[in-house]
Design a protein that fits this description.
The chain is an alpha+beta fold. The protein contains six helices and four strands; from the N terminus they run ααββββαααα. The longest helix is centred in the last third of the chain and has 57 residues, at 99-155.
């Protein structure tokens, strides 16, 4: 049986949910989404259909066999055999591999491992950028609140001793020091 025939048999027989179940991954899927197992994601960014998958964070996408390649760091042929080892879709007598084919598998395995490492690094960089963006957004929100309180303290300050305090002036007096503390602790 050729490699293409094996891949076609897997596509015709199995679904992505069954492949994920082989590794204990798809059991808590909601709307066909789970945390990405390729880059060990925490959010449900890994979407799958019956025939393939896509991670919206690390950009990994492909079919059933390609998922096994990326997840386990295997070459295409070894991934086919791993799927067959679990589901027994075809009977193959053990073939003796030559040293040359072992070298090919080793080169392919290391290429897939490096692709997985690159995807993981890309995800970590994006996560770090997102965290920096969140921190900057929080800092800007705190600064805007500080500026608002400072402006209200000046704008609504009583003009004479007999004039009653405006509620925005009272709020500014109460919250201004605490807001300054928050801004200084973030910076």
């Amino acid at each position: 049986m050729t490699t293409k025939e094996k891949a076609d048999l897997i596509k015709a027989t199995l679904t992505m949910r069954e492949i994920l179940g082989m590794y204990g991954l798809g059991s808590n899927a909601r709307h066909h989404r789970i945390p990405c197992p390729i880059h060990d994601g925490k959010d449900r960014n890994f979407s799958f259909t019956d025939f393939g998958f896509r991670c919206f964070v690390c950009g990994a996408e492909g079919g059933l066999v390609h998922f096994v390649e990326l997840y386990r760091g295997l070459s295409f042929e070894v991934a086919l055999e791993e799927i067959n080892g679990h589901f027994r879709l075809w009977d193959d007598s053990l073939e003796l591999e030559t040293v040359e084919s072992d070298t090919k598998h080793h080169k392919k395995d290391s290429a897939f491992r490096s692709r997985r490492a690159i995807a993981k690094l890309r995800h970590e960089r994006r996560t770090a950028d997102r965290e920096k963006g969140k921190a900057e957004k929080i800092r800007m929100t705190l600064l805007e609140e500080l500026w608002r309180l400072d402006a209200n303290k000046i704008k609504y300050a009583p003009k004479s001793e007999d004039e009653p305090f405006h509620p925005l002036y009272v709020e500014a007096c109460h919250k201004l020091e605490y807001q300054q503390y928050l801004v200084e602790s973030i910076v």
